[in-house]
Amino acid sequence: MTQSITSDLLRPASYVSGSWHANADGQVLLDAVYGRPVAVISSEGVDFGGALAYGRRAGGALRRMTFHERARALKALGAFLMERKEAYYALSALTGATRRDSWVDIEGGIGTLFSYASAARRELPDERFWPDGKLERLGREGTFVGRHLLVPREGVAVQINAFNFPVWGMLEKFAPAFIGGMPSLVKPAPQTAYLTERVVRDIVASGLIPEGTLQLVTGEPGSLLDHVEEQDVVAFTGSAATAAKLRVHPAIVGRSVPFNAEADSLNASVLGLSVKPADPEFALFVREVAREMTGKAGQKCTAIRRALVPSHLVEAVTEGLRRELAKVTLGDPARDDVRMGALVSVEQRERVRETLAKLAGETRVLISGEATLLGGDREKGAFLDPTVLLCENPLTARGPHELEAFGPVATLLPYDSHDDAVHLTKLGRGSLAGSIVTHDRAEATELVLGMASLHGRLLVLNRDNAKENTGHGSPLPQLNHGGPGRAGGGSELGGLSAVRHHMNRVAVQADPTTLTSITREFVPGADVTEDVVHPFRKSFDQIQVGDSLLTHRRTVTEADIVNFAGLTGDHFYAHVDEIGAREGIFGKRVAHGYFLISAAAGQFVSPAAGPVLANYGLEGLRFIEPVGIGDTIRTRLTCKRKIRKDLRPGETRPTGVVEWRSEITNQDGALVATYDILTLVERARDSFDPQPETEDAPA
């Protein structure tokens, strides 16, 4: 309803173009537990086109930051929000969510900030661009090469979120967009927008991210999508029907705006045919179905809607669910003794009831009834008891595979073969998540491979991972969240793949020296810099990409090979057996590959103490040509790239990682072996380092 409100209600405002906009009139929101007015929201008067233009301009500051600078800001923001989490929990209870439900939303959302901050610092360069994939040699002589770069799109990430996760739903989209260098404009669902707004207020007040990086529109979206342009992206979470409408919006289609959808889906969990009632997997399945039905009162796009059960176990599973659901206490989620709260609104409850009525023609109710309410109002609040249905003919029925009751409802579907189970899951026409509960590895393999094409994520649950698994319905920052078909056809999270959605991939073709200058990563064939100062005598700050050392020569002797074999115990015939080696592929005895890289280290290492602290690793080793007795080798060591490391708690010595390209050649100049060496090198303390503790001056 819309009316003028004068009482002291929450007034979640929009934050656009650098200022807050609230209205006295607007949509009145009721709390989900008692049905009392809790907030009034409106987007009346918001200049949507101006907000997007402002975000595009403000995005310049974000794009000028490197990946590592953005990661540090995101980590600091996560810590800032975590200190204020109790205020978010208090508001979350008004949405009908229990403390446990809210933990997933609030701390799970903040945890996503930490996850992306860590991944960016660990895996991305300290640059404003991201060299992607391997170098492509485009000419025979090596003077023409190509490399892909990812650069931030110069637009705004428009993020339209669902009502069920007002914090996580925002932050799981914001984090990869921020790391990718794109500002976000968030449009939360009205029912829970007051919680989203509180978090945004704190983010803005923190001052930890550039102004314009995050904007918020509460209330209706109005003409927002009319103003999107080619450099913008749109990410939507909600119903499949709404996703289908937005996907063909004239501005999105006409301007080729990337559109990513994560929609509701009829997710399935399969109890394996091999499972017996006494097996741990049977109890795990029952508990998981019950948990997915009651978590967030069933209002999760990943929740189990269809529980596939071997026909001979339907009765046993029903009794197991009856016992498990009997433990669920319903009522005011602010109470410690309540395990399931209310749906988000009375309107949402009525939609679920309407869907149940439509399903009645092809299902029958196995478990239902009114539990005693522990606080809250049965009529004015949005309470609905857990309901389990049975579809006795799932292969011919349509409703259970097409109609989603977005609440505490699940339907049991009996099956008799693995082929039938796979077919039933596919009748949902695409799902975000699926699970398979079995300890039989062959069964798990058959079901996973059968179900994989129409699922975004699959969990195999059994006794071995029961303690650590995060559950059927829990998206993780490291793994894909999305699915084909009805699930929207999009993809979110999945580690740094979500960052890529906010960047443009461009192929750059050039000569090796120019490409080295552009990417700040050494390209083979580029000009190098040779200095009288050994590169291992230089600090991290003094070393430059392209610094190079060409070592002295060393002739490999039979004694080298014999001694290395004796030292390591590697008596492979190609090294020590004259007759066997002549009959092998080389036609002669050859040096051990690992002798070559050990000898190369002896050529390029500067032995005295200095800024190089340790060998950090070796990557990409390839042996190209054999080296026999009497062959002469030398090594060229070239700085390929540099990676600054943050000081960890307790560390006092600032360091960075220098990646060196090593090329071993023989007396003919032919390449014998190549590999990259990572060294830990001391660097100077900088502004990003915590200041060292100092003793108080004497009085």
The residue ranges in which pLDDT falls below 50 over 5 or more consecutive positions are: 1-6, 694-699
Number of DSSP helices? 20
Total strand segments: 31
What overall form do the CA principal axes indicate? Answer: globular
Structural class: alpha/beta
Helix content: 25-40%
Radius of gyration: 31 Å
Round the mean pLDDT to the nearest integer and report it: 92
Question: How far do the termini sit from each other?
Answer: 68 Å
Biggest sheet architecture: 7 strands, mixed
Strand order of the largest sheet: 16-18-19-14-13-20-21
- Tell me what portion of residues adopts beta-strand conformation: 25-35%
Description:
It holds the Pfam family Aldedh. InterPro entries: Ald_DH/histidinol_DH, Ald_DH_C, Ald_DH_N, Aldehyde_DH_dom, HotDog_dom_sf, MaoC-like_dom, PaaN-DH. This is Bifunctional protein PaaZ. Keywords: Oxidoreductase. The chain is about 30% helix and about 25% strand. By secondary structure, it is of the alpha/beta class. The chain has a seven-stranded mixed sheet with strand order 16-18-19-14-13-20-21, with helices on both faces.
Summarize the structure.
This is Bifunctional protein PaaZ. It is built from 20 helices and 31 strands. Helix 9 crosses helix 10 (314-326).
